[in-house]
Input
Amino acid sequence: MKRTLGYVALLTTLAWPALAQQGDGTDVPARVNTFKPDKVPATGERIAGLKAPQGFEVKAFAKDLQNVRIIAVAPSGDIYVSRRDQGDVLLLKDANEDGVLDEAPRTVAHRPSVHGLAIGGGHLYMATATEVFRAPLNPDGSLGAIERIINDLPDGGQHPNRTLAFGPDGMLYISVGSSCNACNESNPEHATLLRASPDGKSRTIFASGLRNTLGFAWDPKTGELWGMDHGIDFLGDDVQPEELNHIVKGKQYGWPHIWGKNGQNPQSTPPGEITKAQWAQMSEPMVLGYTAHAAPMQLVFYTGSQFPAAYRGDAFVTMRGSWNRKPASGYEVVRIRFRNGQPVTFEPFLSGFLTDGGQRHIARPVGLAVTRGGALLVGDDANGGIYRVSYGAGKAAAATATVIPKQSLERQLTEGTGVPLALDRVSQAASFGIRSPAFQDGQALSSRFSAYHEGLSPPLAWDAVPKAVTYVIIAEDPDSTPIKPFVHWVAWNIPASVTSLPEGVQVQPRLTDPEGVLQGATSRGSVGYYGPRPPVGDPPHHYHFQVLALDRALDVRPGATRDEVLKAVKGHVLAKGVVVGTYQQTDPPLK
Output
């Protein structure tokens, strides 16, 4: 589903409806409940009452592990479990896949509030709210020396639980939830899915507008990425639905202003006088919705061969359960049916954790993993149990090696890379003067303009061009790798009356001073200026601040990419100019 909207009208105050302002007349009632079903022990009788489709068997695999959160299974079959409240990672073993632990769980790592787990390159990766660690896996399942590879993820706030997964491209994907229920974040890495190198030395924003997408995974048949996002609280018992999103590089998914397919959050106000209708045009709608407040957690595609063939290629999601809905929702595991690469419906798979007419619960499902033998493990962070779901006799039926197709992801990642600088991609045009009061052409930029420091945009000025209607700024680094050139700034619809921008331009999709200027996405994945951040010790990188004079305003959405802007300027460039600054980072940053 594609949304379209014209943006030329955004240049003028008269044509721009100011419906996004505080005090806009919003008056939306909402019935809000705080209802937390009581926790009761997971007795044998209650466990026997769990319900799964015919032919499946559910047994307690482990008990009394306290705050069980994320589950990861190594190629060896070893099972790793994070315990956020205890601040550690446990190792569980069931080598013969008989559903009985071979030994008592062992603690293999201690890190305060550890949560996300992923296995890649022979290492176990572990995430806390602000850090990512890795350690080599030893043959006996223990860990080698633990190394911190990231120490500057955004602070936790309301959603501090980071999750991890390795993509088909071999990169580490990190879910970073929002700091709040619904707000305009000051850190662009909040409410995102990040893509990082396995050594943690570089990362970008893969997708944004994701309130708290703890569960995400790649379809093993198509290579497409799917994730379950938590809906906004306090909108009512049935609003908003939990969202299943098709996650694509560079896309925005609505939060905090738009939910579902066209739902508007009455609590919020978009930045830069953007209306909610316009924000919807900038966002991708959900593909499927599930019962509000059910709290989706870990998501896995079934790649085993123990379950019936109809389950292979479908996904499972744990629903931890609501606290702000009556009757309660969630407290279950659901199946997402896929057909021809598209999700078609949710259906119950494992239920009965909510008991006594919905007044009590024996588990809040969080962790989810497929064992080497094809069973499904479900972790409970309330009573601390792990449940094992098997089919028939429950015999191990190892999955064949699954190689997730990466063609779709490669297309997304290579788009816009390996191209000339912007000025070399536009038609021949006259030259005009560009300068900065903060640096001379070809000379070094001050550290305050770098992302290592203050990250301010440098002041720029240019000669007025006769008959120009608007100006465009595109800043690029041709010395970067692997993204070449790296886009640091895209701004357009700068009125002809404006021939300079001050230091430190506001970082948001639309500016109110100068009025109506729109800003687009950088190669980092954020909107607005992103300062130089070359690898420490690299020779100086060159930053080309390029300005185009146009004979028209551009009908391009806020947050657009450089390539979308360049496509729109074709045939409308009157003149072009550039000023180049350099930057080198010699010392490692403190954080």
